[in-house]
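As the work plan foresaw, the team has encoded backbone shapes as discrete tokens. One protein thus recorded appears below exactly as we store it.

:::
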Amino acid sequence: MGKKEMREKGGDMRRRFTSGRWAKTREMGKRKFVLVYGVFFFGLLSALLSSLIMKLSMPVTVVQIIINLIVFPVCGVFWGAWMWRVNEKRWK
């Protein structure tokens, strides 16, 4: 089997896995997806990780932590909506 055939077979398997997984994930709906994956996983976890890294490297005020807890989840809304769109485009 040549490189082209392997690449095509791998792409086909990847498409089947991704579309099957996405079909199950998309059942939760766009709003819940954005909240869970965008706001919580991306936003809050990024805010906490960023605050921890800042704390280890310099003194951090409560205001900076609060700003992180606001800004990162808001960015997570946009990230989640974008990821929804990308996955929907791939799925269709």
Notes: The mean pLDDT is 85. The chain is about 90% helix and 0% strand. The chain has one domain: 3-91.
